[in-house]
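Q: what sequence does this backbone want?
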C-alpha cells in the first residue's frame, strides 16, 4: 500500500494521488527554479561530467582519497558516514544496532524502535529526531565542520492503517561536494514539493523490504525519480528480502555486490550510470 504525503481526501475510497500530481505538476518547473532545495550544492548534479565506477573500499588502496566520504553499513537502517574532516554521523541510531565509535551526529526515525532510542549516548553532541514531539514537521538545518545536515518530512502508516503525518524524515547530508540522502522509513512516493526540497542526490540509502516501508514498485519509482548515481540497499531483513528487491530493481539499474560493508566515495568515483551497490549485512 502506498500513501501520499499530506493526502487525507478520498475519492471512491482511494487517495487522490493522480489528481494531486496533476495539480503539483503545473508548478513543478517554477518550484525547482525558484526553490530547488535548502542548499544549492545538491541541485543539478545529474548534468555533472561522467564518472568511473565506484569500487568497494576493500578493492581499493586503503588510503582515503582527499575529499572522499566513508559509508559503512552497520545493519538494518544504520550507517556510519565519515567526512574528510572526521565528522561521524550515524543514521537511524537505536538500542539494537550501534557502531563501536561515538558519533558526532545521529539521526533517528520513529516508525519502530529499531530506528530510534529514547536514551542516546550522552556523549553525542547532536541528536536529530525525524519527527517533532510537539507536532508538525521536524525541522533540522545543522552545520558541523564540513558536514551540512537537513531533513524533509514525510508521512508514515500507523498500526491502525491510518496515516501519521510527518512521522518520517528523509535526511540529506552534504559532504565533500556529495549529496547523500537516507530515505528512512519511507511509506509513500514523493510529492513534487518534496522532490524540490530534496534536490538532486548523488547517493541514496534505500529501504528495500517492500512491505514495512514502500512496496517494491513504489520504491523503484522513487529511485527513478531521484536519479541518484549510487543507491545502497538497507532494511531488507533477510537474504530473501534483498534478492526479491534485486530481482525487481535489475529491470532498471545495474547491481554490484560488495564483499565488505564499507565504501569510500568521492565526486570523481561515482558511477557513470546509476548503480545499486549492495553492502553485506541486514
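A:
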Amino acid at each position: 500500500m502506498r500513501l501520499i504525503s499530506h493526502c487525507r481526501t478520498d475519492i471512491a475510497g482511494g487517495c487522490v494521488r493522480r489528481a494531486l500530481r496533476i495539480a503539483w505538476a503545473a508548478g513543478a518547473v517554477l518550484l525547482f527554479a525558484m526553490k530547488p532545495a535548502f542548499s544549492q550544492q545538491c541541485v543539478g548534479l545529474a548534468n555533472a561530467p561522467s564518472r568511473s565506477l565506484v569500487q568497494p573500499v576493500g578493492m581499493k588502496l586503503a588510503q582515503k582519497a582527499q575529499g572522499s566520504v566513508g559509508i559503512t553499513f552497520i545493519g538494518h537502517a544504520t550507517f556510519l558516514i565519515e567526512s574528510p574532516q572526521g565528522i561521524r554521523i550515524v543514521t537511524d541510531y537505536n538500542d539494537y544496532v550501534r557502531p563501536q565509535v561515538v558519533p558526532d551526529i545521529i539521526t533517528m526515525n520513529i516508525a519502530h524502535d529499531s530506528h530510534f532510542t529514547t536514551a542516546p549516548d550522552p556523549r553525542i553532541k547532536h541528536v536529530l529526531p525525524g519527527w517533532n514531539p510537539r507536532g508538525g514537521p521536524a525541522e533540522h538545518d545543522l552545520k558541523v565542520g564540513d558536514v551540512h545536515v537537513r531533513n524533509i518530512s514525510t508521512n508514515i502508516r500507523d498500526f491502525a492503517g491510518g496515516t501519521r503525518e510527518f512521522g518520517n524524515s528523509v535526511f540529506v547530508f552534504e559532504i565533500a561536494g556529495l549529496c547523500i540522502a537516507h530515505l528512512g522509513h519511507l511509506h509513500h512516493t514523493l510529492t513534487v514539493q518534496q522532490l524540490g526540497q530534496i534536490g538532486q542526490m548523488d547517493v541514496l540509502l534505500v529501504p528495500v523490504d517492500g512491505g514495512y516501508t514502500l512496496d517494491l514498485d513504489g520504491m523503484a519509482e522513487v529511485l527513478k525519480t531521484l536519479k541518484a548515481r549510487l543507491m545502497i540497499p538497507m532494511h531488507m531483513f533477510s537474504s530473501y528480502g534483498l534478492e526479491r528487491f534485486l530481482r525487481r530493481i535489475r529491470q532498471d539499474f545495474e547491481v554490484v555486490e560488495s564483499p565488505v560493508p564499507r565504501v569510500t566515495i568521492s565526486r570523481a568515483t561515482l558511477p557513470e550510470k546509476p548503480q545499486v551497490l549492495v553492502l553485506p549485512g541486514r
